[in-house]
Known about the structure:
The chain has helices spanning 2-21, 27-72. It is mainly alpha-helical.
Amino acid sequence: MEDAKKNKPGFFKGVKAEFGKITWPDRKATLKQSVAVVIISVIVGALIAVLDYGVTHGVKALVSIGVNTLTWL
């Protein structure tokens, strides 16, 4: 337990040193990547909506076929 307390200051010094090595993107790169994320999110959302719509109506069609088949019996 004592070793953990002694290692905390060394750990945080290491974290601070690693943060100094980070190269942060500039404003233009951040904006470009943010726009790309938004566009891809909209495209994926639209794709999921289309698939959901198709599956929902496909299941309804299959169920109605099954119900219509059962009424003929």
